[in-house]
Design a protein that fits this description.
Blueprint (H helix, E strand, L loop, with lengths): L1 H37 L4 H36 L8 H12 L1 H12 L1 H12 L3
Length: about 130
């Protein structure tokens, strides 16, 4: 019972709540920016909004790709299907989930010019 309670707790606080928070926050951000773009005739602003939308979608997908296998393994185990999960899947899913913290900086550097230039200048300077 304690293991199942911990699994439910971890699933809700480690996956469901973050996904909902990400979707609500990024949804509000994109709605705000979309309203701003519609009130402006600037092509530069529209291009920036498209780029930001792509970045948000990639960050959401990266989070889901990293954490969804672990969430599925937890749900299967909590439902009593331990025999359905191989030892490899049980070991790889949590490790893969922990790699999620690496994805956002990579996405930021690849899609945000200011962050990329700052990262390049930061790596090139002496301490």
């Amino acid at each position: 019972m304690i293991d199942q309670s911990y699994g439910i707790y971890l699933l809700i606080l480690g996956f469901v709540l973050p996904v909902l928070t990400i979707l609500v926050c990024y949804g509000k951000l994109l709605k705000f920016l979309n309203n701003r773009v519609q009130n402006s005739a600037s092509q530069k602003l529209a291009k920036g909004q498209r780029r930001l939308t792509l970045m948000v979608v990639l960050m959401i997908l990266a989070f889901l790709v990293a954490w969804l296998p672990y969430a599925v393994v937890c749900i299967i185990v909590m439902a009593g299907g331990q025999h359905l999960i191989s030892a490899t899947a049980a070991g790889v899913a949590p490790v893969f989930a922990k790699t999620s913290m690496v994805y956002n900086p990579i996405i930021y550097v690849l899609l945000n010019t200011q962050v990329r230039l700052s990262a390049i200048s930061g790596f090139g300077s002496d301490p």
